[in-house]
Design brief:
By secondary structure, this protein is α/β, with parallel strands linked by helices. The chain contains eight helices and eleven strands. The strands form two sheets. Strands 4-3-5-2-1-6-10-11-9 form a nine-stranded mixed sheet, sandwiched between helices. It has a two-stranded antiparallel sheet with strand order 7-8. It starts with 12 loop residues before the first strand and ends with a strand. The structure holds uridine-5'-diphosphate. The site of uridine-5'-diphosphate has 23 residues, from helix 2, helix 3 and helix 5.
Protein backbone atom coordinates (compact mmCIF):
# COMPACT_ATOMS: atom_id res chain seq x y z
CA UNK A 1 0.00 0.00 0.00
CA UNK A 2 1.47 3.41 -0.85
CA UNK A 3 2.24 5.61 2.11
CA UNK A 4 0.56 8.96 2.45
CA UNK A 5 2.13 12.18 3.60
CA UNK A 6 0.21 15.28 4.68
CA UNK A 7 -0.55 16.11 1.04
CA UNK A 8 -2.10 12.67 0.48
CA UNK A 9 0.58 11.72 -2.04
CA UNK A 10 2.94 8.75 -1.97
CA UNK A 11 6.00 9.19 0.26
CA UNK A 12 9.13 9.69 -1.81
CA UNK A 13 11.79 10.13 0.84
CA UNK A 14 11.42 9.57 4.58
CA UNK A 15 13.59 9.75 7.67
CA UNK A 16 13.26 7.06 10.33
CA UNK A 17 14.37 7.95 13.87
CA UNK A 18 15.41 4.98 16.02
CA UNK A 19 16.38 5.52 19.63
CA UNK A 20 19.50 3.82 20.88
CA UNK A 21 17.39 2.00 23.42
CA UNK A 22 15.50 0.26 20.63
CA UNK A 23 18.71 -1.54 19.64
CA UNK A 24 19.39 -3.06 23.04
CA UNK A 25 16.29 -5.32 23.14
CA UNK A 26 15.95 -7.09 26.49
CA UNK A 27 19.66 -6.93 27.29
CA UNK A 28 19.21 -3.57 29.06
CA UNK A 29 22.31 -2.05 27.42
CA UNK A 30 24.54 -2.34 24.35
CA UNK A 31 23.65 -3.52 20.85
CA UNK A 32 21.60 -6.67 20.30
CA UNK A 33 22.62 -8.13 16.90
CA UNK A 34 19.28 -9.91 16.36
CA UNK A 35 17.39 -6.68 16.92
CA UNK A 36 19.67 -4.71 14.62
CA UNK A 37 19.19 -7.34 11.91
CA UNK A 38 15.44 -7.11 12.33
CA UNK A 39 15.47 -3.32 11.86
CA UNK A 40 17.77 -3.71 8.87
CA UNK A 41 15.32 -6.16 7.24
CA UNK A 42 12.52 -3.74 7.94
CA UNK A 43 14.36 -0.72 6.51
CA UNK A 44 15.41 -2.76 3.46
CA UNK A 45 11.73 -3.57 2.92
CA UNK A 46 10.89 0.15 2.89
CA UNK A 47 13.66 0.73 0.32
CA UNK A 48 12.38 -2.14 -1.82
CA UNK A 49 8.96 -0.47 -1.90
CA UNK A 50 10.62 2.43 -3.75
CA UNK A 51 10.79 4.91 -0.87
CA UNK A 52 14.16 6.58 -0.22
CA UNK A 53 15.21 6.15 3.40
CA UNK A 54 17.36 8.20 5.75
CA UNK A 55 17.90 7.07 9.35
CA UNK A 56 18.98 8.82 12.53
CA UNK A 57 19.97 6.57 15.41
CA UNK A 58 20.28 7.65 19.02
CA UNK A 59 22.84 6.50 21.55
CA UNK A 60 20.92 6.06 24.79
CA UNK A 61 21.68 2.30 24.88
CA UNK A 62 25.36 3.17 25.34
CA UNK A 63 25.69 6.66 26.78
CA UNK A 64 23.53 9.67 27.58
CA UNK A 65 25.24 12.99 28.18
CA UNK A 66 22.69 14.41 30.56
CA UNK A 67 22.84 11.40 32.88
CA UNK A 68 26.63 11.51 33.01
CA UNK A 69 26.59 15.29 33.62
CA UNK A 70 24.36 14.74 36.66
CA UNK A 71 27.05 12.44 38.02
CA UNK A 72 29.69 15.15 37.68
CA UNK A 73 31.15 14.81 34.18
CA UNK A 74 31.46 18.08 32.25
CA UNK A 75 28.31 18.31 30.09
CA UNK A 76 30.01 19.06 26.78
CA UNK A 77 32.40 16.15 27.24
CA UNK A 78 29.51 13.92 28.23
CA UNK A 79 27.52 14.97 25.17
CA UNK A 80 30.51 14.27 22.91
CA UNK A 81 30.57 10.77 24.35
CA UNK A 82 26.83 10.46 23.70
CA UNK A 83 27.33 11.50 20.09
CA UNK A 84 30.12 8.95 19.68
CA UNK A 85 27.75 6.29 21.00
CA UNK A 86 25.39 7.01 18.10
CA UNK A 87 28.26 6.31 15.67
CA UNK A 88 28.60 2.78 17.02
CA UNK A 89 24.89 2.19 16.58
CA UNK A 90 24.92 3.61 13.06
CA UNK A 91 27.84 1.42 12.04
CA UNK A 92 26.05 -1.64 13.42
CA UNK A 93 22.93 -0.82 11.43
CA UNK A 94 24.89 -0.10 8.24
CA UNK A 95 26.70 -3.41 8.61
CA UNK A 96 23.42 -5.28 9.00
CA UNK A 97 21.94 -3.51 5.96
CA UNK A 98 24.99 -4.31 3.83
CA UNK A 99 24.83 -7.96 4.92
CA UNK A 100 21.34 -8.04 3.42
CA UNK A 101 22.47 -6.49 0.16
CA UNK A 102 20.98 -3.10 0.94
CA UNK A 103 23.52 -0.35 0.29
CA UNK A 104 24.02 2.04 3.19
CA UNK A 105 26.22 5.04 3.92
CA UNK A 106 27.08 6.39 7.36
CA UNK A 107 27.53 10.17 7.50
CA UNK A 108 28.88 11.64 10.72
CA UNK A 109 28.34 15.17 12.04
CA UNK A 110 31.69 14.74 13.82
CA UNK A 111 34.30 14.11 11.12
CA UNK A 112 36.15 10.79 11.56
CA UNK A 113 37.32 9.98 8.09
CA UNK A 114 38.88 6.62 8.87
CA UNK A 115 35.60 5.32 10.29
CA UNK A 116 32.88 6.81 8.09
CA UNK A 117 32.21 9.78 5.82
CA UNK A 118 31.74 13.27 7.19
CA UNK A 119 28.24 14.70 6.92
CA UNK A 120 27.62 16.98 3.97
CA UNK A 121 24.10 17.77 2.81
CA UNK A 122 24.90 17.42 -0.86
CA UNK A 123 26.51 14.02 -0.34
CA UNK A 124 23.46 12.84 1.63
CA UNK A 125 21.03 13.95 -1.07
CA UNK A 126 23.15 12.34 -3.80
CA UNK A 127 23.28 9.01 -1.95
CA UNK A 128 19.56 9.07 -1.23
CA UNK A 129 18.87 9.71 -4.91
CA UNK A 130 21.08 6.71 -5.75
CA UNK A 131 18.91 4.53 -3.52
CA UNK A 132 21.37 4.14 -0.64
CA UNK A 133 20.06 4.16 2.91
CA UNK A 134 21.76 7.15 4.54
CA UNK A 135 22.42 6.84 8.27
CA UNK A 136 23.13 10.14 9.98
CA UNK A 137 25.25 9.72 13.12
CA UNK A 138 26.81 11.91 15.82
CA UNK A 139 23.55 13.82 16.21
CA UNK A 140 23.81 17.46 15.22
CA UNK A 141 27.50 17.51 16.14
CA UNK A 142 26.73 19.93 18.99
CA UNK A 143 26.31 19.39 22.72
CA UNK A 144 23.01 20.27 24.43
CA UNK A 145 20.98 18.79 21.57
CA UNK A 146 19.29 15.42 21.11
CA UNK A 147 19.10 12.98 18.25
CA UNK A 148 15.40 13.91 17.87
CA UNK A 149 16.53 17.41 16.92
CA UNK A 150 19.15 15.87 14.62
CA UNK A 151 16.42 13.77 12.99
CA UNK A 152 14.19 16.74 12.24
CA UNK A 153 17.11 18.90 11.13
CA UNK A 154 18.52 16.28 8.75
CA UNK A 155 15.04 15.54 7.40
CA UNK A 156 14.53 19.21 6.56
CA UNK A 157 18.02 19.54 5.08
CA UNK A 158 17.68 16.46 2.90
CA UNK A 159 14.12 17.25 1.83
CA UNK A 160 12.36 14.29 3.45
CA UNK A 161 8.55 14.21 3.33
CA UNK A 162 8.06 12.89 6.86
CA UNK A 163 9.92 11.85 10.00
CA UNK A 164 8.84 8.46 11.39
CA UNK A 165 9.77 8.37 15.03
CA UNK A 166 9.83 4.86 16.45
CA UNK A 167 8.84 4.43 20.10
CA UNK A 168 7.72 1.63 22.41
CA UNK A 169 4.06 2.67 22.13
CA UNK A 170 1.71 3.21 19.22
CA UNK A 171 1.60 7.00 19.25
CA UNK A 172 1.44 10.00 21.54
CA UNK A 173 -0.58 9.73 24.75
CA UNK A 174 -1.75 12.37 27.23
CA UNK A 175 0.42 10.62 29.86
CA UNK A 176 2.73 7.61 29.92
CA UNK A 177 0.36 4.71 29.10
CA UNK A 178 2.62 2.28 30.98
CA UNK A 179 1.94 4.05 34.26
CA UNK A 180 -1.43 5.73 33.49
CA UNK A 181 -4.06 3.24 32.34
CA UNK A 182 -6.50 6.12 31.65
CA UNK A 183 -4.10 7.95 29.28
CA UNK A 184 -5.69 9.14 26.00
CA UNK A 185 -4.03 8.29 22.69
CA UNK A 186 -4.16 10.89 19.91
CA UNK A 187 -4.44 10.16 16.17
CA UNK A 188 -3.51 13.70 15.16
CA UNK A 189 -1.95 16.65 16.96
CA UNK A 190 -0.68 20.02 15.86
CA UNK A 191 2.87 21.10 16.64
CA UNK A 192 1.50 23.79 18.93
CA UNK A 193 -0.61 21.27 20.85
CA UNK A 194 2.46 19.10 21.45
CA UNK A 195 4.38 22.12 22.72
CA UNK A 196 1.55 23.68 24.77
CA UNK A 197 0.64 20.37 26.48
CA UNK A 198 4.33 19.55 26.96
CA UNK A 199 3.74 16.06 25.58
CA UNK A 200 6.97 14.16 26.11
CA UNK A 201 7.47 12.79 22.65
CA UNK A 202 10.34 14.93 21.35
CA UNK A 203 12.20 17.85 22.80
CA UNK A 204 10.81 21.32 22.11
CA UNK A 205 13.60 22.27 19.70
CA UNK A 206 12.78 19.30 17.46
CA UNK A 207 9.06 20.10 17.44
CA UNK A 208 9.73 23.79 16.70
CA UNK A 209 11.99 22.98 13.72
CA UNK A 210 9.35 20.57 12.36
CA UNK A 211 6.65 23.22 12.80
CA UNK A 212 8.65 26.01 11.17
CA UNK A 213 9.32 23.79 8.17
CA UNK A 214 5.89 22.08 8.02
CA UNK A 215 7.51 18.67 8.35
CA UNK A 216 5.04 16.00 9.53
CA UNK A 217 6.22 13.70 12.33
CA UNK A 218 4.59 10.27 12.69
CA UNK A 219 5.05 8.52 16.04
CA UNK A 220 4.63 4.74 15.86
CA UNK A 221 5.46 1.54 17.75
CA UNK A 222 8.40 -0.69 16.83
CA UNK A 223 6.62 -3.77 18.15
CA UNK A 224 6.53 -6.70 15.73
CA UNK A 225 8.46 -7.66 12.61
CA UNK A 226 7.88 -5.18 9.77
CA UNK A 227 6.78 -2.35 12.07
CA UNK A 228 8.76 0.33 10.23
CA UNK A 229 7.54 -0.72 6.79
CA UNK A 230 3.96 -0.81 8.06
CA UNK A 231 4.24 2.67 9.53
CA UNK A 232 5.71 4.12 6.34
CA UNK A 233 2.88 2.43 4.39
CA UNK A 234 0.37 4.24 6.59
CA UNK A 235 -0.80 0.98 8.22
CA UNK A 236 -1.33 0.42 11.92
CA UNK A 237 -1.85 2.92 14.70
CA UNK A 238 0.25 6.04 15.00
CA UNK A 239 0.01 9.73 15.84
CA UNK A 240 0.69 12.31 13.17
CA UNK A 241 1.97 15.71 14.29
CA UNK A 242 1.41 18.36 11.64
CA UNK A 243 0.15 21.94 11.18
N1 LIG B 1 23.85 14.25 21.74
C1 LIG B 1 24.36 15.54 21.63
N2 LIG B 1 24.04 16.30 20.55
C2 LIG B 1 23.20 15.86 19.56
C3 LIG B 1 22.64 14.56 19.69
C4 LIG B 1 22.99 13.78 20.79
O1 LIG B 1 25.12 15.98 22.48
O2 LIG B 1 22.95 16.59 18.59
C5 LIG B 1 24.30 13.37 22.85
C6 LIG B 1 23.55 13.58 24.16
O3 LIG B 1 24.49 13.41 25.21
C7 LIG B 1 22.56 12.45 24.16
C8 LIG B 1 23.33 11.33 23.49
O4 LIG B 1 24.10 12.01 22.49
O5 LIG B 1 22.18 12.07 25.45
C9 LIG B 1 22.51 10.25 22.84
O6 LIG B 1 21.47 10.82 22.08
P1 LIG B 1 19.92 10.67 22.51
O7 LIG B 1 19.79 10.78 24.00
O8 LIG B 1 19.12 11.60 21.68
O9 LIG B 1 19.66 9.17 22.06
P2 LIG B 1 18.31 8.31 22.12
O10 LIG B 1 17.49 8.79 23.30
O11 LIG B 1 17.57 8.53 20.85
O12 LIG B 1 18.80 6.90 22.27
Amino acid sequence: MPSANDKGTRARRVLVKLSGEALMADAGHGIDPTTVQRFARDIAQVRESGVEVAVVVGGGNIFRGMAAAVEGLDRTTADSMGMLATVMNGLALAGALSAQGCEAAVLSAIPMDTVCEPYARRRAVTYLGQGKVVIFVAGTGNPFFTTDTAAVLRAVESDCDTVYKATQVDGIYSADPKTHSDATRYDMLTYDEVLARDLKVMDGAAVAIARDNKLPVVVFSLAGEGAIARAVSGEGRSTTVSA
